[in-house]
Amino acid sequence: MTDSTHNDLVIGIVGAGAMGSGIAQVAAASGRTVLVYDQRPGAASNARAGIITRMEKRVAEGKATQDAFDMLVANLQVVESLAALAGCGLIVEAIIEDLAAKRALFAELAAIVANDAVLASNTSSIPIGAIASGLPNPSRIAGLHFFNPVPVMKLVEVIRTPDTADEVVEGLTLLAREMGRVPVEVRDTPGFLVNFGGRAYTTEGLAIVHENVATTAQIDAVMRDCCGFRMGPFELMDLTGVDINYPVTAFVHQSHFSDPRLRSTPLHRYLFDVGQLGRKTGRGFFDYREGANRPSADATSSAPPARAVSLLEASEALVALAGELELTVLPADDGICPILCAPIGEDCAALSARTGADHSRLVALDLAVNTARRITVMTAPEADPAARDSVVALLSQSRAVTAIADSPGFIAQRICAMIANLGCEMAQTGLAKPQDIDTAMRLGLNYPSGPLEMTDAMGADQLYTIMTQIQRLTGDDRYRPSQWLRRRAQLGLSAMAS
């Protein structure tokens, strides 16, 4: 096979859109000659001009040297036909996400380039083996999936099919490092690692909205303030575009035989069907049109703040919060005051039924996540508004409060548990090494931590409890725990333990 790390390697890029031009830029900046081709007249030339303009700006701002700029300009070339790529040792395909189109292109390329040239696809979700099917010498075909914007995003997924030669994977991995990227090796499967693992964050947020538990604004605020995510799931989907995230979600769900853990909701499909795609159309899960107001995630109350409470199944965190708030904790329920609780994976209805506590005065607080900036309050159906409002009034003196309807696992417990559980499932099925799973999810999706790190931080036993409780209460196999999570919870092991 061609040595993908050799400095005299000539790299061909087919497709000069956002991804193709980004790959061309980082490849040329690494010192290799790069030939860019696009079947659309002028597209490759325009891409080259755009790259040069961006690099000129970086030089002017002192973020790049003149020598680096000169090298990139010299290395970046445009060609007018596929035949002009015949001398390339590596070709990276970055065309539309259509299996038939990619197969046709790879068949053309296989007939043009040398027998030892490496052919790689930048597809974000189509299995590489499906693209390579029927082609001669499939051992030289692999996936090389960059993330948008390529010059900024460091992650590269190197996808190996059962036929891909070891030297091809090793060469692409080393080349990615020399391009300044962070490569992770991933087994060939629909969605690969990031697009598969990233389903949990958005689809569980959608499930919570579907159940009328909380609003999109409330969910986003909780995930930012309590869990450290840069963006909530709904502002993230509006940014990437519903026309992007819905088809990928549907494809991954269908490709995994309708695994309920990957299921979306009718609202997701509805926005796609009616063209409310997010920021690009002015409306999505939120309204971005001029004059539109973003709904508040904060609960407010004019009620007198609670001063005395009883604690149900008092945990260390609940006792500590009561002390911080200078609450009088009654030794026994007086039949009048709010009853505070901090359930793990349960909702107020289940907790009341199990303990006999008065559901009308039960006010649940999610203390499983960071509550320094925001705390989530949950009540049962037909709850006494006075009990809830007095607790909201007290809590809102020191932090933002989000008040939601009854839900096993609140918001944050549910979403974090689903992210962690899907990460554990990726480890269980050998999709990638545990450390690579976390690296990919942090770099590819800007998560505050990887799913296995999240498992260890919250505790595998606690996350297993959350999943089993939600599965029991909902009867939905969407929440079935991964065997990887179960074993490590039962044995007290790190989620990283193999």
Automatic annotation (TrEMBL):
GO terms for molecular function: 3-hydroxybutyryl-CoA dehydrogenase activity; NAD+ binding. InterPro entries: 3-OHacyl-CoA_DH_NAD-bd, 3HC_DH_C, 6-PGluconate_DH-like_C_sf, 6PGD_dom2, NAD(P)-bd_dom_sf. Residues 11-189 form the 3-hydroxyacyl-CoA dehydrogenase NAD binding domain. It comes from the Bacteria. It holds the Pfam family 3HCDH_N. Keywords: Oxidoreductase. GO terms for biological process: fatty acid metabolic process. Residues 191-288, 409-492 form the 3-hydroxyacyl-CoA dehydrogenase C-terminal domain. Its EC number is 1.1.1.157. This is 3-hydroxybutyryl-CoA dehydrogenase. It comes from Devosia subaequoris.
